[in-house]
């Protein structure tokens, strides 16, 4: 084997885990770092440097607000969707507890990202009651299931718009209407939907919505929480120290990060339709290229889903078909995610796949392929060849 082939980088098909920063975005960010650039503290009120930094942070805020149909005053910068989710959930719970002197009831789903599930566990330990809704076999939360779980003391519902493992889309608008009729706050984790499908907070009717820049070709380490102004939506700050972001989130704003997220939001908005159609075409090409493999099955809804995610089970059960760990290890030329989370040494099957009814063996033999803006047709054709040859080899063994 020649060095050039043995050192070839795998093909990146893990855009749902993170995306590379768009070159246009990186260029804008680089202008906000050095002495010649826009490096100052955006909260410095006494000199031109500070004013200029504040100006670019505020125009970035407008770009982010625009992506989701919000007002600029409704955007709170955070370090990512994890922090935005924590702020929304703990912030709303704290206000409720202060007003009612007791913990109320929170509804979420069993297949949320850990950045929702873990803060909810923490709140449960603090005395709040929690219901985790089961998804249907397609990975979608049905509105009747939500309606059936509402209680007299339910004050907060947190449901994701697009599931990060399956790509399926929830009907947030209907959930929000139901919550509104009962005076319940609704939070939505939109980390996988914003920049991929049209997201408009006014049309959806949500109170709180979380964003992450690195899921739409912005930098890691920055995100935002939308906090609706109308209707008196209040959340308590979880990070104190100076009262930035209208007292909801203190800390010096990272000018380059905000600018990067803003630019990425504008780019994503501009290319929403064309990117979406092209990426859906590539995803379909990939599926058509492997759909005839024995015992193969697509996980989650194939109709009500974002364009970039394809989750596939490669085995009907443990007795025949292939072992997921072996499959992942053999697909060395592709960078994908397994249906298992690697917890230290042991591979535990994905809780999302288990919740939609897959067995441990099926979940362990599942892979998530996620396609993005820079994926090419040649890469997909190569991936199909590679998957087919690896599966053939494993089934023989
Ligand atoms: C990536 C992701 C998060 C976490 O976002 P960070 O910005 O990495 O903290 C939360 N929820 C969903 C659905 C995600 O895909």
How would you characterize the overall build of this protein?
With 397 residues, the chain is of the alpha/beta class. The chain has two domains: 11-22 and 272-396, Aspartate Aminotransferase, domain 1, CATH 3.90.1150; 31-270, 3-Layer(aba) Sandwich (Aspartate Aminotransferase, domain 2). The chain is built from 14 helices and 15 strands. It has helices at 3-6, 23-30, 48-67, 81-100, 114-125, 143-149, 172-181, 201-204, 255-270, 272-290, 324-330, 351-355, 360-364, 377-396, and strands at 11-12, 75-78, 105-109, 129-133, 154-158, 185-189, 208-212, 223-227, 297-298, 309-313, 334-335, 337-338, 340-343, 346-349, 366-370. The strands form four sheets. A seven-stranded mixed beta sheet has the order 2-8-7-6-5-3-4, with helices on both faces. Strands 9-10-15-12 form a four-stranded antiparallel beta sheet. Helix 3 runs parallel beside helix 9, helix 4 (81-100) packs parallel to helix 5 (114-125) and helix 10 (272-290) packs parallel to helix 14. The two termini are 24 Å apart. The structure holds pyridoxal-5'-phosphate. Pyridoxal-5'-phosphate (PLP) binds next to helix 4.
